[in-house]
TrEMBL record:
Highest taxon, organism lineage: Bacteria
Organism per entry: Jiangella alkaliphila
Phylogenetic classification of the source organism: Bacteria, Bacillati, Actinomycetota, Actinomycetes, Jiangellales
Protein name per the record: Uncharacterized protein
Length: 59
């Protein structure tokens, strides 16, 4: 399996801060998922804008 994370940094005022927040929040939220191929979720920044997606894929 493969964990795939894609986050667009376009338009972020402080990309490092927002990306850090995304990694902490969504990383801490993963225990709610089985982490099997097909699992995934949209990723939102602190302004609740859709900025990406994480997913579990088959190798």
């Amino acid at each position: 399996m493969k964990f795939v994370l894609e986050v667009s940094l376009d338009g972020m005022d402080d990309a490092a801060k927002e990306l850090g927040r995304v990694l902490r929040y969504w990383g801490g939220n993963l225990h709610h998922y089985e982490l099997k191929p097909g699992d995934g979720s949209a990723i939102y920044d602190s302004a609740y804008r859709d900025v990406g997606r994480w997913s579990i894929t088959a190798s």
